[in-house]
Specification:
Elements: E1 2-6, H1 12-21, E2 27-31, H2 43-59, E3 64-67, H3 70-83, E4 88-90, H4 92-102, E5 107-112, H5 114-119, H6 121-129, E6 134-139, H7 143-148, H8 155-169, E7 175-179, H9 187-194, E8 199-201, H10 203-217, H11 219-225, E9 232-235, H12 240-250, E10 256-258
Parallel strand pairs: 1-2, 1-3, 2-9, 3-4, 5-6, 5-7, 7-8, 9-10
Helix pairs in contact: 1-10, 2-3, 4-6, 4-10, 8-9
The protein binds D-glutamic acid.
Length: 267
Amino acid sequence: MIGVFDSGIGGLTVVKEITKQLPGMPVLYLGDTARTPYGNKSPETIGQYALQDARFLIDHGATVIVVACNSASSVASKILNSEFDNPVFEVITPAARRAATLTKKKRVGVIGTRATIGSRAYEQAIHAVDDRVSVMGQACPLFVPLIEEGWAKKGETTRIVKLSLQGLKTKNIDTLILGCTHYPIIRDLIHAKIGKRVTLVDPAEEVVKDLRQYLDAHQAVAQSLRSAADHRFMVTDVTEHFQSIAQSWLKRSVRLEKVTFGEGPGV
Ligand code: DGL
């Protein structure tokens, strides 16, 4: 199966994209809801959690890993790639590549958690493609809790989004990376506040495009990944709130299974 992990339920936006671009492909999802959020933790802690998450998925039958979490992708990609032989897809490289290709003014904005922005991972990945691009980062730590509270449509959220993007708005960017799993949920609001002339890049879309290309080129792997009948959603803590967000984001019935690290395969 394709193993997808995130700090919590935000990575379901990546699962949704897999459902869209790779219909019928089963996903083994791990949301580390007991330790969420990752975005305001140190790189060392996030790195350690990411290794545990990937290990858990591999122990439970995942052969290809997708790091849905931007915070984990931005600080742990190298270590995940060196630790495991399995193909690991992270969100930073494909979204950076897309932004570097799209920007005409060579001015790209990135929004994300403090960990993602502080790591400068998007900046480095964009410069690996084109070092003439100026990259402006802005941490937006208030967006995740507002979205998880279901406040996406409230006036307070509109004001906070406007205020958070004010600095970037003066930077003359023409491309903006939505560098956090949750931001596609308020994509229209972000677009309205940053300006309709700015092109948005959704890392979930880009990482799944990369995954799809890989599977097209590796048909035997693609075949082997289709072994399960349906998705499986595992989380390290279950609450009614997580359960209801999961269902409303995926627009399907979802049963969250509580798991504990250290359990053996098949749990
Ligand atoms: N999933 C995280 C990310 O994409 C956002 C939530 C968190 O901070 O854990 O960065």
